[in-house]
Design a protein that fits this description.
The structure holds three protein chains of three kinds. By secondary structure, chain A is an alpha+beta fold. Chain A has helices spanning 14-24, 37-42, 79-84, 86-91, 93-101, 105-108, 113-119, 127-132, 229-232, 239-253, 264-283, and strands at 7-9, 28-31, 50-53, 63-66, 70-74, 136-141, 144-149, 154-156, 159-160, 167-173, 181-187, 198-205, 211-217, 224-225. In chain C, 64% of the residues are buried. The chains are: A alpha+beta, B alpha+beta, C alpha+beta.
């Protein structure tokens, strides 16, 4: 099946990209890994006049880390590159794990993390990890630059905070707090590669007393963090009791739908199961 | 046991080199001069009248060479029921049915043209469940069913949605149920699923102005394509030539006729240019054929001692919009309905029902995986009701040699042994062994299921083979049966090498099938290939040897009975001067003075199924089975009650295959079939919306097994009780390998959890739901 | 629609051609270069039958634009063997019975080749992961996995 017709553009700098977007924004689609874009073009769900390939821009290939700023993941960095990075594996475990659950290695050789969040699927595999890691999104346009928390980036099914003419230059992930533990669990329909029926990322720091974050995918119009979980662990009581409470809060706060992949009831159930599993793991409870 | 040089050895498949180097050609790899490309406009409605089709804008597009609508092609096709329209004529019968076809210089132009075509529909009430479709006043999918031509053994009911009603009556079920101590009745359900061959349906057609029709197609049955096209179009059969290159998987879904009429009709309209159609994956799901949905009600009467005395079965098949193979699947499942057991009183009604779903066709097992899910689950449920071990219960009722099947056939002494299969599976799965039920918080269980199947085919089905002796002494075998991965040509090459005692490297099997040149065979279906083409091949070897001996006898001046053909020579044993390489006889025998005798050596072999009869239309009594292949399968599963996940730890299978010709290829059939079975057991299903549109028409959401989804362990135990009239004693097994995977797993899930499942797929969500419901019941009790 | 001049190396041969923007690498290989060993079976990244090596990296060619491969190196199944001499992976596929209908075989072989290049002694789980994006309906995968494991052993001998 041939793809609809379009012009292919390949800017070499972010300035050039910003200018191109300023000119063609409404009719253009950014093209990084293409693993989502080419499929929706083939299905004629989108018919851009311009496809702007960002892989020629050296600056967007940045994958760097330093003690102060944390991790920077440029828009053209593939998931395979991310997974291959020692620093990501050692310091950003939930993100590393989530990246490794997205599709299969041949897709990850092309797909990018920024593409995954810009596609804004409720099931985005890397989103829950970025949410618990307090990631920020660096947005650039011809008019300048702004940085927003990832929490504010997802606006609805397939909708983001990006305005016309804007693009994501990079995602920045601050270093997790000292002693933090994090993890990601994904539940699909099969053992083989699948989209998430539910995905849950968790992060705890300070022996589980001060900081507990849980974020999920596939259970609401956007990936979301459930801030109410935090409060559960401020009080007393057994860790097991707190975990059960946290899971029930999660189930209360999410709003999954029934679709071809799973029923609402099963998603609610699995969100609770996965939340408990992940909290047990990172809180070190049995 | 006899020692063989090639038969029984795991020789590499003869097509392997081409396939690992990417040089094997499939239909979509061919490119013909002037070829046009097809795109289809498909129905968005499940059932609607076509009011108007406007193709005027599309016609203006440069590069569009032919646009075809149903009105222009008022033909009907079908192997057993002539009901299938090439393009929807007056109304559409299911979502995805082709309404308009465009042939253009490129796929891109064809696709643009399709987008410019406007169709106006008037929606009609639709029916999606076979039980609803049988109700009085249900919308009729085919109003003119009474006018359709059909095979004599198909029994449609005019002015209803019933395309075939197969009846089986053995003994007296009413009396049987009165004798019974316990009666158990259950219902079972399965959705439509799909073959999911990796190669989608692909055809190239050319209808030349002189009436010659050329077809290159991904078909399992080139001769059936030719025949059905000839009947449907009213064209003489010798004017049609069908070529089948390598096939990228068939599994029944490419048997019979599919899109060949469409491409040749487009070609006719385009003035004879070749026209290609490659189904997209979405069309493969939506537009082309699928496996029928299935509903069963099974009522079994049993004595306390475990003897089954009566069984009443109702099978309702969701055939979708066209009957295709569905009507014969209904029949085959009907006459095999008891499974591999002797039951004195049986009543079975197996009914094909039209609905507004995609149309049903053959899928590996031909109805048997569907009904075995019902009957092999039922065996466990009945055994439980009388407190008997399910293995003992099966053995007690087993259809052993000498016993009488549901159609009144007395099983021959060489019919194969289901009891042996059951016993080795039970042993290998560790049945009854004390093992922990709970491992790491998960529940473990074991289940077994037995099976049988015979080829479903007309009583007079035949095959042929041509074996040529070449000038260098090598031989070339031609058969009509195609290579779709099952490996029959390799096994036949082994048989030829064995018979001629000739190195297998010197035996070539022609890979391409072409009806103008290849010898006739009925179809490549029904697990009958090795048996029937094998018999035809052995006959061809005999004839070739005979011709060689006749010529050599004259040259040597000895009686031909003294001559032996072996080791690439013809010779009189013990007389070194009476010996001649076969190469010297290939084109003619030559006397020392130069005179020639004999002629090019060619063996023509044939085989026609023996002893089969039609079945009585009212009772189903008769002899339908060329051979029964018996088997048993066992599953060990681990169920996570928190998530509903079922993991298959181990699958054990045994089949009485008579003789293993090539253990490596055989193992491939078994493992591959099991994994297909696990697909339909645990994940595969068509999910429709309320308007009959398929929601998962892609491989993102129609899940089939990936490498991570296979069992941890496979065990396969071949049983070799030879079949007297088969080449080397073989029986077919291509389909059997996936027949009882679903019930074995379901029985194992019960063993693990105490929960009975009556519906597939037993996916994570469904199993979780069933466990939860059981939990709620227990809590409220 | 824009057209683009590209030059690329496929199986060691250089090509210079003009492609339309909407052409995929899969279409370029199968239709323009007539390298039909690479198969098309879903065109949306699910089945993996169009897998090729792009600068040595296994990639689903239906999700790559032809214009992107300017200056790059593509290996398809046709580029593996030299005459009659097969690679250890190809040989293992034949010996283990990992080939049936053959339609998925090129993709699995390429994925196996790429895996063994950077991980010469993979575990069974690593093999499953490496081929997890490629579908096969005939073999049940067992013999494919065994073939790749077997090739990893024989290559070292």
């Amino acid at each position: 099946m041939p793809l609809p017709k379009f012009d292919y553009l390949r800017p070499q700098t972010t300035e050039e990209l910003a200018a191109t977007l300023a000119e063609h924004g409404a009719d253009a689609k950014l093209f990084a890994g293409g693993t989502d874009l080419i499929v929706v073009m083939r299905d004629k769900l989108v018919r851009p006049k311009y496809v702007i390939d960002i892989k020629g821009i050296e600056e967007l290939r940045e994958l760097s880390w330093d003690e102060r700023r944390g991790l920077t993941i440029g828009a053209a960095v593939t998931l395979s590159e991310l997974i291959a990075s020692e620093v990501v594996r050692e310091r950003f475990g939930a993100l590393w794990k989530a990246a490794g659950t997205l599709a299969d290695p041949t897709i990850r050789n092309r797909a990018t993390l920024v593409g995954n969040i810009c596609n804004a699927s409720p099931a985005a595999d890397t989103a829950p990890a970025l949410l618990v890691l307090w990631a920020e999104v660096e947005i650039v346009s011809a008019n300048g630059k702004r940085v927003i928390p990832i929490r504010e980036f997802f606006k609805g099914v397939k909708r983001t905070a990006l305005e016309q003419g804007e693009f994501v230059r990079a995602v920045r992930v601050p270093n997790p707090p000292e002693g933090a533990k994090e993890d990601y669990l994904k539940w699909g329909r099969t053992r083989g590669e699948d989209l998430a029926v539910v995905g849950v990322a968790g992060l705890v720091a300070n022996s589980g007393k001060k900081l507990v974050r849980i974020a999920l995918s596939s259970v609401a119009p956007t990936p979301l963090i459930v801030p109410e979980v935090e409060g559960v662990f401020k009080g007393g009581g057994s860790v097991e009791g707190q975990i059960d409470k946290a899971a029930s809060i999660v189930v209360e706060k999410i709003s999954p739908i029934s679709d071809v992949r799973a029923g609402k009831e099963y998603r609610l159930h699995m969100a609770g199961v996965l939340t408990k599993q992940i909290l047990k793991r990172i809180l070190g409870a049995s | 046991m006899k020692k063989y040089s090639y038969v029984g050895k795991g020789v590499p498949r003869i097509d392997a080199f081409e396939k690992v180097t990417g040089t094997a050609q499939y239909t979509a790899d061919l490119r013909l001069p002037g070829m046009l490309y097809t795109k289809l406009l498909k129905s968005p409605h499940a059932h609607a009248r076509i009011i108007r089709i406007d193709t005027s804008e599309a016609e203006k597009l440069l590069g569009v060479r032919a646009i075809l609508t149903g009105k222009e092609v008022p033909y009907k096709f079908g192997i057993y029921m002539q009901d299938k329209e090439t393009l929807a004529q007056k109304k559409v019968h299911h979502v995805g049915e082709p309404v308009v076809a465009v042939a253009a210089d490129t796929e891109e132009i064809a696709e643009q043209a399709v987008e410019l075509i406007k169709v106006e529909y008037e929606e009609l009430p639709a029916v999606f469940d076979q039980r609803d479709a049988m109700k009085e006043g249900a919308p009729l999918v085919h109003e003119r069913l009474h006018e359709y031509k059909h095979a004599p053994f198909i029994f449609p009911k005019p002015h209803t949605n019933i395309a075939n009603h197969f009846k089986l009556r053995k003994g007296d079920v009413e009396r049987g149920f009165k004798e019974a101590d316990v009666i158990v009745e259950n219902e079972f359900y399965q959705p439509q699923v799909q073959n999911v061959q990796m190669e989608t349906h692909t055809s190239i057609g050319q209808w030349l102005p002189n009436g010659q029709i050329n077809i290159w197609t991904s078909a399992q049955s080139p001769f059936a394509v030719r025949h059905l096209l000839s009947v449907g179009l009213g064209v003489p059969i010798h004017k049609i030539n069908v070529v089948v290159p390598y096939l990228g998987g068939g599994f029944g879904g490419k048997a019979g006729l599919h899109w060949e009429p469409l491409v040749v009709l487009l070609s006719r309209k385009a003035g004879g240019r070749p026209v290609r159609l490659v189904m997209t994956r979405e069309e493969q799901f939506n537009t082309t054929a699928v496996r029928q949905g299935f509903y069963a009600r099974v009522k079994t009467g049993v004595k306390r001692d475990g003897k089954i005395v009566a069984e009443e079965l109702l099978f309702l098949w969701d055939a979708g919009a066209y009957a295709d193979y569905g009507v014969n699947i209904t029949r085959a499942a009907g006459y095999s309905c008891t499974g591999p057991y002797e039951i004195p009183n049986v009543k079975c009604d197996s009914i094909t029902v039209y609905t507004n779903h995609p149309y049903g066709t053959a899928y590996r097992g031909f109805g048997h995986p569907e009904f075995h899910f019902a009957t092999e689950r039922q065996m466990d449920l009945v055994a439980r009701a009388i407190g008997m071990d399910p293995v003992e219960f099966r053995l007690k009722n087993a259809a052993l040699p000498g016993r009488i099947t549901a159609t009144g056939e007395k099983l021959r002494e060489d019919a194969g042994r289901v009891d042996e299969c059951i016993k080795v599976v039970v042993e290998a799965i560790g049945w009854g062994k004390k093992e922990p039920k709970q491992v790491g918080g998960k529940l473990r269980g074991k289940g077994i299921a037995a099976l049988w199947k015979a080829p479903a085919m007309p009583s007079y089905t035949s095959s042929s083979a041509i074996l040529k002796l070449n000038e260098d002494g090598t031989v070339t075998l031609s058969i009509g049966s195609i290579e779709m991965g099952q490996g029959t040509p390799t096994a036949l090459a082994q048989m030829v090498a064995e018979e001629l005692q000739m190195p297998i490297e010197k035996v070539k099997v022609v890979t391409k099938r072409e009806t103008d040149f290849s010898p006739y065979t009925w179809q490549t279906v029904a697990s009958r290939g090795l048996f029937m083409e094998g018999n035809a091949t052995l006959d061809a070897v005999r004839k070739l040897k005979e011709q060689v001996r006749e010529t050599a006898a004259e040259l040597f001046g000895v009686p031909k009975e003294e001559l032996v053909v072996a080791e690439e020579k013809v010779f009189v044993p013990g007389k070194p001067d009476k010996s001649m390489p076969l190469a010297k006889l290939a084109t003619a025998g030559i006397f020392p003075d130069g005179r020639g005798i004999g002629g090019p050596v060619l063996g023509y072999g044939m085989y026609t199924a023996e002893g089969l009869t039609n079945l009585d239309p009212e009772t189903g009594q008769g002899l339908p089975a060329l051979m029964w292949t018996f088997g048993a399968q066992g599953a060990e599963v681990e169920v996570d009650s928190e998530t509903g996940e079922v993991r298959v730890l181990k699958m054990v299978s045994a089949f009485d295959i008579g003789k293993s010709i090539n253990p490596v290829l055989l193992k491939g059939q078994v493992y591959g079939g099991i994994v297909q079975g696990i697909g339909s057991a645990l994940m595969e299903e068509f999910i429709f919306n309320e308007k009959g549109a398929l929601l998962n028409n892609n491989l993102t959401d129609y899940k089939i097994c990936r490498a991570q989804d296979i069992p941890d362990e496979f065990v396969f135990i071949p049983i070799e009780n030879p079949q007297r009239n088969a080449p080397y004693g073989v029986r077919g097994v291509g389909e059997h390998v996936r027949i009882s995977v679903e019930p074995a797993i379901a029985n194992a899930i019960y063993d693990a959890t105490g929960v009975d499942l009556f519906e597939i797929p037993m996916n994570r969500e469904r199993v979780w739901r069933a466990l939860k419901q059981r939990g709620e019941k227990v809590a409220s009790a | 629609m824009s057209r683009h001049e590209i030059s690329l190396t496929v199986n060691g041969e250089r090509y210079e051609l003009e492609v339309e923007a909407n052409r995929t690498l899969l279409q370029l290989l199968r239709e323009d270069l007539e390298l039909t060993g690479t198969k098309q079976a879903c065109e949306r990244g699910d089945c993996g039958l169009c897998t090729v090596l792009l600068d040595g990296v296994p990639t689903k060619s239906c999700l790559v634009l032809a214009v992107e491969v300017d200056g790059r190196e593509v290996t398809t199944v046709e580029g593996l063997s030299r005459g009659e001499e097969l690679t250890p992976v190809q040989r293992a596929f034949i010996e283990q019975g990992a080939v049936q209908c053959g339609f998925c075989t090129p993709a699995f072989i390429l994925a196996g080749e790429a895996l063994l290049k950077h991980n010469p002694r993979p575990t069974e789980e690593e093999v499953k992961e490496a081929v997890g994006g490629i579908l096969c309906r005939c073999t049940g995968y067992r013999q494919i996995i065994d073939a790749i494991l077997d090739a990893s052993k024989s290559a070292k001998k």
